[in-house]
Amino acid sequence: MIEMYFKDSPKTTAKQWKQRVQFELQGADYNDLLVHKSHEGISLLPFYTSENKQFTYEVNAEPKAMISLYCSNTEQTLKRIDFWLSKNVNHFFITLHFEKNNWSEFFSQLPENGVYFIDIQLLDLSFLQKINELIQNCYRKIFLCNDCIHKFLKKGKWFQNQKSDLELVINNISDKNPVIFVDTTLYQNAGVGMIQQIAYGVSQAMEYFKNICNKFIINELKICFKVAVGDNFMFEISKMRAFRQVTESVFEKFGSNIKIFFITETSNRGLSILKSKYNENYVSLAYESAILGGSDFVIPKNSVIYKKNTLENETNSIEEIQKIIQNRKAAFLNGMYSFETISYEIAKKSLLLFQNIEKSGGLLEQVKNHTLQKKIKEKAQEEQILFEKQIEKMNIDFQCFASKEEWELYPFVKQKQEKTLVEPLIEKRLWEKIEKRQLKR
């Protein structure tokens, strides 16, 4: 869709522009032909004026590229950190695999010019206490990230139990760099809509915040959201801006010095096993959407079917992100009628949903009574139907699918049959049904 922007003029109103466009349509229906309505009820109009804008909200984030590392070998991880520091990339999201590693030596050897977000995958009391102690005594900029609710939603069960898991997270929030870390990527990858992603993400943060308020007095707190971004350019940009707007409006009421920031990665939801340029275009649009939407950190995307990107590919991804950062700024969109309007609509609906979730007992209560899972399934199914209708209209060369012989990773949903407390959220790509049908032929 081509979007037109018009400067305000006392001689031409929005109503007159619409009348002019309708005249040019020669009897075709304006709303059917030119107004695109998402399956969440947000309209994308052919043009915007000041009459559409209801609220002004500025986003001035200055994004940086971030490298994601899975640390199973501390020596190799330190080498990779040194390599990226030499390329002027100094922000790292490190997932620890804690078995048989000398973490005291690892933390002491982290280069001082790096900034490190340490993600704890496994909850273990002694391990958490050890890591927290190391961070307290380490003169590096380290943020400890631990989201047990994300793991609960993904696995359908707690590591120990709800009370113990939440206490482990809360009690091990670093006094040095206190962070509430909220991973919302599961929602988008499971088919959740924009409005739900924001409302569920803020509700997830609130589950931690309520526990912190009961136990600590914190003068300064950071809330870090990890968010998945797709290629639906205008809506994804608006989603990111609305996410920040809603989060700030909710937490500013608590009076604490709370800072909000976002780590973004490309969603798997729309990726395919096509060998064409489709995935490259998808990822590039996601990068741009994240940066213009106000992301603070952008992580490059790995392939769906290959275990590791080559260093060359990873370097190219970082260079692409850095190039977009140089040429695109979230501040460029401040005051633009289209993004202000769409962001406001998303924020308004998200805030209302968040308030309803809190009134009903909070996010975890909705998970326990399966309200959340039911709503997510409904929204994912709506999106799947719309996607398949779009694919039918496109001229896709299905011979371009990577064959099984080329896979290093199995690209479809794998579910273990195990007993859970609640139904887990399942990440599923939109292309999976189509790919499976074609591969059977």
From TrEMBL:
Transmembrane segments: none annotated. Residues 146-409 form the Methylmalonyl-CoA mutase alpha/beta chain catalytic domain. It holds the Pfam family MM_CoA_mutase. InterPro entries: Cbl-dep_enz_cat, MeMalonylCoA_mutase_a/b_cat. This is Methylmalonyl-CoA mutase family protein. It comes from Capnocytophaga stomatis.
